[in-house]
């Protein structure tokens, strides 16, 4: 997925953070711990800028409910962050979350940052029959889900974010004060 110099990709839509975000999630590529139940899910993809260029070492912070619709507000169960590799790719092992009142769609909350402002959004699942009834659901945030032969699921999603350039974000005074 790349774009020409004059063609920009659509940015990933932002959505509400919700009440369950906590700062300081641990860096880890698997949110599955002893005692976690639910259908395993491997979520993978890439982080690109609006010109289709991969963003290496972007931080992607994930938090979600368990398979009964509960969030851990004390520890870091089903919370974690990953860094994209040098080609902007990421992979996360987790479980398929459950719905909870008043939401109609299973979803995973995400914050993405890569020399940019933080992009906060939610990902929805293509196999969720009630997803379109959810007030926050957007087709642009849908993870394409495949069932694997071993009972696990696999999902794919590419984030597109606008990066901040030095030209847009630096004053002549701050450039002059920069330590060489």
The backbone outline, from C-alpha atoms, is globular
How big a fraction of the residues is strand? 25-35%
Q: Strand order, biggest sheet?
A: 3-2-5-6-7-8-1-4
- How far do the termini sit from each other? 36 Å
Tally of helical runs: 2
Find the structural class using helix and strand composition.
Answer: mainly beta
Description of the structure:
There is one protein chain. By secondary structure, the protein is mainly beta. Helix content is 6%, strand content 31%. It is built from two helices and eight strands; from the N terminus they run E-E-E-E-E-E-E-E-H-H. It has an eight-stranded mixed β-sheet with strand order 3-2-5-6-7-8-1-4, with no helix packed on it. The longest helix is centred in the last third of the chain and has 6 residues, at 172-177. The radius of gyration is 17 Å and the shape is globular. The termini are far apart. The model has no long low-confidence stretch (mean pLDDT 91).
Set down the secondary structure blueprint.
Layout: E1 40-49, E2 59-63, E3 79-83, E4 89-95, E5 107-113, E6 119-125, E7 142-147, E8 153-161, H1 166-169, H2 172-177
Outline:
The protein has 180 residues and is mainly beta. It is built from 2 helices and 8 strands; from the N terminus they run E-E-E-E-E-E-E-E-H-H. The chain has helices at residues 166-169, 172-177; strands spanning 40-49, 59-63, 79-83, 89-95, 107-113, 119-125, 142-147, 153-161.
Which descriptors apply to this entry?
globular, 8-stranded mixed β-sheet, single chain, 180 residues, mainly beta, 2 helices
């Amino acid at each position: 997925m790349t774009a020409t110099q004059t063609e920009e990709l659509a940015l990933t839509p932002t959505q509400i953070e919700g009440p369950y975000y906590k700062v300081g999630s641990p860096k880890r590529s698997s949110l599955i711990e002893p005692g976690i139940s639910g259908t395993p899910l491997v979520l993978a993809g890439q982080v690109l800028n609006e010109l289709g260029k991969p963003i290496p070492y972007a931080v992607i912070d994930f938090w979600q409910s368990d398979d009964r619709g509960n969030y851990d507000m004390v520890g870091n169960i089903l919370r974690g962050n990953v860094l994209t590799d040098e080609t902007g790719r990421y992979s996360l092992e987790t479980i398929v979350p459950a719905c909870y009142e008043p939401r109609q769609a299973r979803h995973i909350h995400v914050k993405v940052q890569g020399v940019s402002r933080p992009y906060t959004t939610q990902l929805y699942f293509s196999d969720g029959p009630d997803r379109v009834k959810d007030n926050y659901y957007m087709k642009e945030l849908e993870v394409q889900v495949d069932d694997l032969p071993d009972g696990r699921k696999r999902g794919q999603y590419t984030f597109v974010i606008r990066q901040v350039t030095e030209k847009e974000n630096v004053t002549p005074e701050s450039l002059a004060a920069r330590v060489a």
